[in-house]
Write a structure and sequence with these properties.
A: mainly alpha; two-stranded antiparallel sheet; about 65% helix; B: alpha/beta; Rossmann fold; 6-stranded mixed β-sheet; 23 helices; about 35% helix
Chain lengths: ~375, ~550
């Protein structure tokens, strides 16, 4: 829809977070699978031909690992629920002061289902974040961060880009160990590579910092020391007030009178701090991404899905949670399926990528050469 | 434009200053080349121009540096960003964003330029550096030469009046290096940018320079002057200059073209002589072989059916563009990376089946970043670890180090060694197990001429002792000096394999300077010419050039 262009990164992240929020409201495996399918379909249709565009597969794998680990932990250590015994593992009872912790013993169908659904929910949330990551890299998101938060954003993005770099470093160190005639497997090899890997990361960080400084990063326009202190107080104080306020609102024990005013005060202080800091910053943005109808539609799809599931939860829609105790087949509430259908609409409503960037149009070329 | 006034810089913890009492003035619009041995303080000099030294690195600076009217003592690097553009040695390490266009805009965003100005400058810079086709490409997918041009473009968009380049071509193949230098040349001539550039590969850059600064190191005074004047006596010089000195040409030619014009008499004199070549042992038993080797990373083949054999006593050079598959080939010989088809054998065994502990008995590889292999805090510890790994008598590695690089001391931290010393230390570590096959991946990156000459001698000795040596490199001069055979890879295939003289003289890209000057004769190095002329002393050399002087 529309001319080929890059969709605003915030729209993608908003959409994905909406899906993740929806996923957190349900333990029905069928609905969770549908959410993942919707995300995968959109990624397939709109992911760019760039290194980060291929990260979705990694997040899918990570999701599987999360499920496996969650179930394994339940089987080995988890507290037992229900009575349908599947298998009995050799184990022993721990002393009374460690009551509640179990090693081995009875494994029930109920507890395994519980763990499986819980793992699937977590995996779906991770996969939704992965979808956003492959549709719009964190660096693109940085372009639309408010000027006042820019420096905070930079540190997050730099940290994120170093993670893949660490993987390359570990690989390089394994190669070096082999070249020195040492074993490349086993705990000793891993321990020995930890220090050089961290050293390398630190060194790169310092180099990057020097390079950014040389290019004008952190230039302050005309902010006086007093203004800077004022901004810091407003931002920090505001955030703390907002946190205490919202805690007082939700926790049953504290007076509600304290909650709302503090929350409002905190939000106002933070907003004021952001505005002042934004004015003081001299940064400008190159080709800021526009926010048009397509962005509203994509973001709206995410919000609608999240809102839909929140309503289902409040109304207690049957089938939102799969039956665990006693075990039973999950049902598929039609209305939830329809709402999830909305999640897949960005595959059509988002504009196609500029020619030469759509991964769906061609099979992987350029990006792979770098590994060669 | 740039004024150094009695500048002395001492790093924290160092006993001696890196630069002592440096005073110089660089006028606007000049291309200044900074040369010197590794560790002499070249990089410090460059980084002091925008104040990264000492603002970022720490240390003490006496005297003052003024750039375009701003004193670096009172202006940190970020306040000089609109005036001085610095391109680091490894461009990838300085990239902040992940797309070409965003990277070009980054500096301007920091400076707070208006969006329409940014848009216009990005377009201009894309055209100026020939990057228009790459504007939306991820930086990770670019080749070495493209990255270097993007890094230059990224600082150019801020319209700096000074451009500082630290070894812009040292990691590049000859073709990409020319691309980058052509771009720099254009900046100086069309835009009047002042360029300060450090580079070891003098043969590539000296003809472009207006001035040369020689940094002798150890705090000795700098030499500053025009290239022909300084090159006459400089301790480091490209082959064209050395040939000119040998033949006594005046004025001293700096380009192959000028040298060819002067070389008529020398060519006549050399008729009837043939270059003295090292006798290459002819052996049929190869120490390592590859047969129809195919390596794929994903669907893209990095090597497509490579046949290669390494006989004992030969130095084989592996050349080709960045990304042609050289490193993949070396890795396959040590059993790293996937093998899709074909076979690799080293000493009759498949290297992939060899565990790490046995590998060194068959083959050793000095990787592109030799420092990766070092992990101890002193040279002595490193040598002891190498003895243990190789299961050889204690002291073996240390003895090798004493032989190859006697100036390295036991107590030094490997990180404090110069690039060249570190390479030699790693070479000793790898050689401690006496692997019959020795592989080196771009050993001369960042090495100065004296260290390169030392490496060349060591490699020749090792070949003499029966090692098979395979050397991946972009350095045509080193190849001319040490290689008996050259293999050229293009796009994962072997496109040429033969004796050095035959292969390099037939290719304009891979021919060394001496071969270009004296073609159609097939001389490769100054040493060969000197040996053929016999003991040439001063007057004879002068006589040879006398005919040209008029």
């Amino acid at each position: 829809m529309g001319d080929p262009r890059w969709l605003h990164a915030a729209a993608w992240w908003g959409w994905a977070l909406g899906l993740a929020t929806a996923a957190s409201r349900t333990t029905n495996p069928l609905l969770l699978v549908l959410i993942v399918l919707a995300a995968a379909w959109v990624v397939h249709a709109r992911r760019p031909l760039a290194p980060w565009g291929r990260s979705f597969a990694f997040f899918l794998r990570l999701g599987v690992v999360v499920i496996v680990v969650r179930v394994a932990v339940q089987v080995l250590f988890g507290a037992s629920v229900g009575t349908t015994e599947v298998i009995w593992l050799p184990g022993f009872t721990l002393p009374s002061w460690l009551a509640g912790v179990r090693i081995g013993g009875e494994v029930t169908l109920e507890s395994m289902l519980l763990a499986l659904y819980d793992g699937m929910r977590l995996a779906t949330i991770i996969i939704c974040v992965g979808a956003a990551n492959s549709l719009a890299s964190p660096t693109r998101l940085l372009k639309s961060v408010p000027a006042a938060l820019y420096e905070l954003g930079v540190s997050v993005v730099v940290a994120l880009t170093f993670t893949p770099q660490l993987v390359t470093d570990v690989e390089r160190l394994r190669t070096s160990r082999r070249l020195r005639g040492r074993s490349t497997h086993g705990p000793r090899a891993i321990a020995a590579s930890a220090v050089p890997v961290l050293e390398g990361a630190l060194e790169r960080a310092v180099t990057l910092a020097a390079a950014m400084d040389s290019r004008g990063y952190g230039r302050r326009g005309t902010v006086t020391a007093r203004q800077r202190r004022l901004i810091a107080v407003a931002l920090l104080g505001g955030l703390v007030a907002a946190c205490i306020g919202s805690y007082a609102l939700v926790s049953a024990g504290s007076p509600a009178v304290l909650g709302l005013p503090l929350l409002i005060l905190g939000v106002i202080a933070t907003a004021a701090g952001l505005v002042v800091a934004g004015r003081a910053s001299t940064r400008t943005t190159y080709r800021a991404d526009p926010w048009r109808l397509a962005e509203w539609l994509v973001l709206g799809a995410g919000v609608a899905v999240a809102a839909g599931f929140a309503v289902f939860g409040a109304l207690g829609l049957p089938g939102l949670d799969a039956p665990v105790d006693p075990p039973g087949w999950p049902t598929l509430p039609l209305v939830a399926v329809l709402v999830i259908g909305l999640a897949a609409t960005p595959a059509w409503t988002a504009p196609p990528l500029p020619p030469g960037h759509a991964a769906s149009a061609r099979a992987e070329p350029a990006a792979l050469e770098l590994s060669a | 434009m740039i004024t150094f006034d009695r500048v002395t810089i001492t790093y924290p913890g160092a006993a001696e200053p890196v630069l002592r009492d440096v005073s110089l003035v660089i006028p606007e619009g000049e291309l200044v080349l900074v040369v010197g041995r590794t560790g002499s303080g070249k990089t410090t000099l460059l980084r002091a121009i925008n104040g990264v030294v000492p603002h970022f690195t720490g240390g003490r600076m006496a005297g003052s540096i003024v750039v375009g009217g701003r004193d670096t003592a009172t202006h940190p690097p970020r306040e000089l960003a609109d005036l001085v553009g610095v391109v680091p040695q490894d461009p990838m390490s300085g990239f902040v964003t992940d797309m070409v266009e965003d990277e070009l805009a980054y500096g301007m965003e920091c400076l707070g330029l208006a969006p329409d100005v940014m848009r216009r400058r990005v377009e201009e810079t894309l055209d100026l550096l020939g990057l228009a086709d790459l504007r939306q490409r991820p930086l990770m997918s670019l080749s070495g030469g493209q990255r270097q041009r993007v890094a230059i473009g990224a600082v150019l968009t801020a319209h700096p009046r000074v451009l500082v380049l630290d070894e812009p071509t040292s990691a590049l193949d000859p073709g990409s290096a020319e691309e980058v230098l052509a771009a720099v040349h254009r900046l100086v001539h069309d835009l009047g940018v002042t360029v300060v550039m450090a580079e070891h590969r003098l043969e590539r850059v000296v003809q472009y320079a207006d001035r040369v600064i020689i940094v002798p190191g150890q705090g000795q005074p700098l030499l500053y002057g025009s290239p022909p004047e300084l090159m006459r006596t400089a301790p480091i010089a490209p082959p064209v200059v050395e040939l000119g000195r040998l033949a006594g040409w005046h004025p001293l030619p700096l380009t192959v073209r000028d040298a060819r014009r002067a070389a008529g008499p020398l060519r006549d004199l050399l008729v009837g002589h043939t270059p003295h070549l090292r006798a290459v042992p002819t052996s049929t038993d190869a120490l390592a072989t590859m047969q129809r080797l195919v390596v794929r990373y994903g669907p893209v083949p990095a090597l497509r059916g490579v046949d290669l054999s390494l006989p004992p006593g030969q130095v084989v050079a592996l050349m080709g563009r960045n990304g042609a598959g050289k490193s993949t080939l070396l890795n396959a010989l040590v059993g790293i990376g996937p093998v899709a088809q074909g076979s690799v054998t080293v000493g009759g065994r498949d290297p992939r089946a060899l565990p790490g502990s046995e590998l060194l008995g068959f083959v050793g590889l000095v990787p592109q970043e030799p420092g990766d292999l070092l992990e101890c805090t002193t040279v002595a510890d490193e040598c002891r670890a190498a003895d243990r790994d190789a299961r050889c008598a204690p002291g073996t590695t240390r003895a090798l180090v004493a032989l190859m690089a006697p100036e390295i001391e036991d107590g030094q931290h490997p990180r404090d060694l110069s690039e060249g010393q570190r390479l030699l230390l790693v070479l000793c570590v790898v050689l401690s197990a006496r692997p019959p096959v020795l592989l080196l991946d771009e050993p001369t990156r960042g090495l100065d001429y004296p260290t390169k000459a030392r490496l060349a001698r060591i490699l020749a000795d090792l070949a003499e002792a029966g090692h098979a040596i395979l050397l991946a490199t972009h350095d045509v001069e080193l190849v001319a000096e040490v290689a008996d055979r050259v293999v050229i890879l293009a796009d994962g295939e072997v496109v040429a394999d033969g004796p050095t003289t035959d292969v390099v003289t037939s290719s304009p890209m891979f021919a060394p300077q001496v071969a270009k000057i004296l073609s159609p004769q097939t001389w490769l190095t100054v040493d060969q010419v000197a040996a053929a002329l016999g003991p040439v002393d001063g007057p004879a050399g002068a006589g040879l050039g006398g005919e040209q002087a008029g």
